Amino acid sequence: MSLLDTLQQESEEKLKGGDIKLTSELYDDDKVPGLVDEIFTEALKKHASDIHFKPSEEKLMVYYRIDGQMILHKEFEKIFHHPIVARIKIISGLKIDEHRLPQDGKSSFVYEKMEVDLRVSVLPTNFGEKVVIRLLEKNPKLVELRDLGMLPNVLLKVEKYLKSNYGMILAVGPTGSGKSTSLFSMISTFDATAFNISTLEDPIEYRIPDVTQTQINTEIDFDFPDGLRTIVRQDPDIIMVGEIRDQKTASLAIESALTGHLVFSTLHTNSAIGTIQRLLNMKIDRFLITAAIKLIISQRLARKVCSHCREQYPIPKTYHDLLRKEIGVDPEKDFFYRAKGCEKCNNTGYRGRIGLFEVLEMTPEIEELVVGGASNKEMEAKAVEQGMILMRKDALYKAVTGDITIEEALRVMA
Ligand SMILES: [Zn+2]
Questions:
Q1: How is domain 3-137 classified at the CATH fold level?
Q2: DSSP secondary structure code for residue 246 in this structure
Q3: Domain assignments of the chain as residue spans, ordered by start
Q4: CA 406 to ligand 1 centroid distance, Å
């Protein structure tokens, strides 16, 4: 039995059903390191990406971010606050007696042979120090291209363009939409001993054997344009630029794509079509955009409905017209899915995530529209006519096939 379980069992009589609360009577100096370790262990078991230690006037709340959502893990009475923060500071090499200035530190933690880096950030607030810890797996597993969640014909389209000898493939979306996971899935389909593959990253997340990976470091003025200028002198076949943030990087990346290299990158835009406008805003010439870009993959991440406890239910009448119109299914015959929660999904009903995609090909017809200065609406209509599946349709398909709930589909589309 774990320490937290013991403490909670001891306190059961004092608490009314609040199995996540730890009261001041349970406080013991010697137990703090164990408590902190257990918070880390539980976070890793539950595949949390971050741990938040958030103080209020009377309490310290501990939240996990799991599959993008904040979930309350434990609630401590205030007496636990300082000792827990002090313990975290000790293991991440921070000053214990500094309470007025923000601090950043690092540590690591091992759980069942899995090693994670802890990126610790401490912020002074009106209720004392708030700590947020990002958990970064040291050697995260690459997701295979076919496991990202692309519909079969979308996957075929992407695979077709991966055979190009030059040009640019972009993954676009907001922060946390899985763009770099997609890029690495694509890059790992190449034989890295047969091609010279170089990446510029900030930070390096996945490690791929035989790929030359370089960390950008803006603190010493080593930025994406600097890195790119050097990489093209190193006889590359395939180049990955972690992110196009500015005009300089954009024009260098486009230039590389037009001089016989296959270039992968990401952009922070909301839709496939919107990416073209974004590049135009960065003062990239229309002709260069159409000549360089092969494919734009716009994406989001949706929480998957837990496959262990999900169940089918008839599609409510309110969605019938939408489904008929958008994806042409018979809502009388199909189903939606929901999950009541089980041990496997921490009683949330969700487990893991899946990508929602909208993939734009630079066809001759789209090229013509871009060069002619057509509106986004015109371009989108043409792309759809040529087979592009809009992201909202992808979401609805996935609700009907049982990958996600309709609520999640609507949430991500909003
Ligand atoms: Zn479940």
A1: Beta-Lactamase (3.30.450)
A2: S
A3: 3-137, 145-413
A4: 17
